[in-house]
Amino acid sequence: MVKLHIGIDDTDSPEGMCTTYLGALLYREISKIAEPLDLPKLIRLNPNVPYKTRGNGAVAMSFDAKEEDIPKIKNLVLGIVKELSDFSHRNTNPGVVFIEGDIPEKLERFAYQAIWEHLDITDAENIAEELNAEIHKFRLGRGIIGALAAVGHPLKVFTYELLAYRTREFWGTGRKVNKESVFAVDHLTYPFTYDNVDLSKGSVLITPHGKDPVLVGIRGIDKNKVMWAFENIIFEEPIDFFQIYKTNQNTDDHLRFKKIAELKPLESAIVRGKVIKKYWEKGRHVFFEISDETGKLRVAAFEPTKGFRKYVRMLIEGDEIIAAGGVKEFNGVLTLNLEKFYPIKLAEKITYEKPKCPKCKGTMKSKGEYLKCKKCGYKMKKVLIPKRIPRDLKRKIYEVPPDARKHLSRPLTLPMAEDKILDVLKLKKVV
Ligand code: ATP
Questions:
Q1: Which domains does the chain have, with CATH numbers?
Q2: What residue's CA is closest to ligand 1, atom 27?
Q3: Is the CB of 142 under 6 A from ligand 1?
Q4: What is the best residue among 52, 107, 407 to mutate for testing ligand 1's pocket, by most ligand atoms within 8 Å of CB?
Q5: What are the residues whose beta carbons fall under 8 Å from the beta carbon of 219, sequence distance 6 or more?
Q6: What is the whole-number distance in angstroms between the Cα of residue 72 and the centre of ligand 1?
Q7: Alpha-carbon gap, residue 277 to 290, rounded angstroms
Q8: N or C end of the chain, less CB within 10 A?
Q9: pLDDT tens digit string along 221-269?
Q10: Single pTM value for the model
């Protein structure tokens, strides 16, 4: 028996298909010939790369196979990728990788590079050659980046997602899933399954909106509860097939601590800094500025983050915060697209008020350098009284709402969701 690892990426476009659909189909077909070593993997990569269709996801799976069956399996994979990839779209550049034997350790490093950085197709080609991985490129073949990374990702921390797919005649039509049943199932399985519904909006989150074949995606940390949720949701259209994936979704895999001067566009980071310019708005987007000892940085909470922006507006100059998000350049300015923030130390918020009239306790009115009582006309030099205003922000992590959250971002309802952010506090001299 030989261990065979398969990675696939970039088969879909906004107009249709989904790499997980293809992966689930293949996993089922190959499992008729070879022994699966684990569930298939759905690996989310750098959320900021411009080529992604939706969530920059790639798929990998591993089997114990008979030596003589390996060519058959490879042909099956390549045949299905050729047949089902959405080549109608010019941005679909599928890549497939096959690796036999143990997964080389170097590929784990490559997987994290693909999550943290921006890579070229040649980076993938070079590592494939070095590790003797068999790569297949269709068109530009950019998918080999994701395919190699998906095979290499060790999934030491993971969650599950059950994906159920629609029959072909329903693709592109409105999804028919009984809303009440999703709320009922959420009530019984949360937090072992999560992101099923948005309670504040009364909306269902498990159904995507595009033309892809996914009917629902149910996320969770307990495989059995995910399965139970799926069995108890009422579907009002047929299901073609379904598959549970093991995934790095909601693990904060993409976040690393960085100094402001080290930030590069298209990466994600956690930074620690002081607010040097309180919020301003442009359109419905909210911006502010922070600095650390290496430089200053614009931070943004964009319109889709909705109610989260309210907390961003509460930050004032002097507040010390930890902020996490993706780094992008907007109009030539490096900007952190905020996913979470944690106020470490809040500055004092002071307003200056006019005193009451010392004679009659009446209200004083400003008259240039002087204050004049509205009631008795008493006049005195203008001296204002400082008053401390209580701050509304708490010492807790604030996160964007579920529908604005990146696939990789860990929701606070999950265990250890605060670790990566709060670990920054443990860094003595921040490097
Ligand atoms: P879906 O989630 O629906 O499967 P997608 O958002 O994953 O779609 P793809 O069509 O797979 O989008 O396109 C992403 C492309 O970006 C792939 O070709 C992948 O190999 C490539 N890619 C992934 N990570 C990186 C990276 N770090 N640097 C450069 N390219 C990357």
A1: 2-152 (3.30.70.2200), 159-247 (3.90.600.20), 260-346+391-426 (2.40.50.1010), 350-387 (no CATH)
A2: 114
A3: yes
A4: 52
A5: 159, 160, 161, 193, 194, 195, 196, 226, 249, 250
A6: 27
A7: 7
A8: C
A9: 999 999 999 999 999 999 999 999 999 999 999 999 999 999 999 999 9
A10: 0.93
